[in-house]
Amino acid sequence: MKKRTPVSNIMTSKVITLTKNDTLGRAEQLFKENHIRHIPVVRGTQVIGMLSYTDLLRISFADAVDEDEQEVDTIVYNMFTIEQVMAKNLTSVSSTTTIKEVAEILSKKEFHALPVVDKDELVGIVTTTDLINYLLEQF
Predict the structure, then answer these.
(1) CA 45 – CA 47 distance, rounded (Å)
(2) What is the separation, in whole angstroms, between the first and last Cα of the chain?
(3) pLDDT band at residue 60, thresholds of 50, 70 and 90?
(4) Domain 7-137 in CATH 3.60.21.10
């Protein structure tokens, strides 16, 4: 296992994003269509927050809705904005941060995804799943 491998080797660089003006219904749709659990919230190319599928589950019955069903609990979603539900004050890493450093951060924090930011611009996202897949490739 290479000790100095940068996170850019395992991060997702084609990141699906939201803005604070998007709806929670739109967020749920993106989570389900793309089979993802974390979406950075951006203003332009700058990350201002992170929304997780768990954040939606906390305020709704999103997991009880059949994935093929288009109807969501819009009453609950209309009570909140993305800005109210998203995590703020994020920890981020640069694309040159080592995979080991990312693993250390994620192992000590209570979140499962980090935005990858270079020069105040979102360039990727790395998740615990990315780390596990990297580890599995080493065997």
Answers:
(1) 7
(2) 9
(3) confident
(4) no
CA distance 32 to 69: 11
Is the Cβ–Cβ distance between 98 and 10 less than 8 Å? no
CA atoms within 13 A on the CB side of 75: 1
pLDDT in tens, 89-113: 999 999 999 999 999 999 998 889 9
Share of the chain above pLDDT 70, in %: 88
Q: Which helix (H) or strand (E) holds 75?
A: helix 74-77
In the chain, where are the structural domains located? Answer: 7-137
Listed in sequence order, the residues at least 6 apart from 98 whose beta carbon sits closer than 8 Å to its beta carbon are 3, 4, 5, 6, 7
**Tokens 């930011």 belong to residue:** 117
